[in-house]
Amino acid sequence: MGSRCLSRSLFAGSALAAALLAPAQAGEPSARELIALAPILDSSDRACRSLDVGGYYGVENGPGPRLRFRALYRAPHHFSLLLTDAADGTPLVFCSDRKMLLYDAVGPTLYYSENASFTLELASTDAGIQLNYLCLLKSSKPHHIRVDFPSMLPGLPSEGQAAEGGAFEDRVVKCNSGQFKLIGRVPRLLR
Fold first, then answer.
1. pLDDT tens figures, 149-170
2. CB–CB of 36/150 below 8 Å?
3. Beta strands in 5-116 (DSSP E)
4. Letter string b/e over residues 80-112, b meaning 16 or more CB atoms within 10 A of that residue's CB
5. Contact (CB, 8 A) for 145 and 120
6. What pLDDT score does 155 carry?
7. What whole-number distance in Å separates Cα of residue 51 and Cα of residue 76?
8. Is 61 left (phi over 0), alpha (psi -120 to 50) or beta?
């Protein structure tokens, strides 16, 4: 019975691998083309009417703190930001329009301002995905939210690099007519 399940698994895995390794059909986008379609969301873009960005940053059970964040924008000038400790939910920063509460847990001190601003940027660098935020208790700068999706998608090597090592395994899988998934994996050299 165990070998029967194993043989079915091998067959299913072989069929899936063949589908993923098959070259793109005419009219299907390449991985590079799908990445090029990903937007950079920026609250300073006049075409941007609203943003709702949230998630967790940091390694679960890791050495450093893990944050939960949520930033909202509604045109023309309405912003809010909430940063909390992901472990216990302690609010660290709350900002609504120009009013901000900032909790210094080490102090412990609670700061309040009616003329504050924040910047939140989410992007990927060589070091990994970076969440950069800046909270200013006294500032006339406008708030800013920016999410760089193309930088967070799988890094595709140049044509020459792909031919040399073939280390990247980015694939495009067709889901339905006109719908595709980009599947990116860690380079084989980094495993």
1. 888 776 554 444 444 444 455 6
2. yes
3. 40-42, 50-57, 67-74, 78-85, 91-96, 99-104, 109-113
4. bbbbbbbeeeeebbbbeeeebbbbeeeeeeeee
5. yes
6. 55
7. 12
8. left
Q: What angle do CA 141, 146, 149 make, to 5 degrees?
A: 170
pTM of the model: 0.65
Q: Name the CA radius of gyration of the chain, rounded.
A: 22
Domain segments of the chain as ranges: 40-152
Q: Tell me if 180 sits within 8 A of 38, measured CB to CB.
A: no
- The count of other CB atoms within 10 Å of the CB of residue 122 is 22
Nearest to 92 by CA among 63, 125, 67, 129: 67
Judged by average pLDDT, the poorest of 97-106, 110-119, 151-160, 173-182 is 151-160
For 17, residues 6+ apart whose C-beta sits below 8 A from its C-beta are: none
Q: How far apart are CA 83 and CA 97, in angstroms?
A: 15
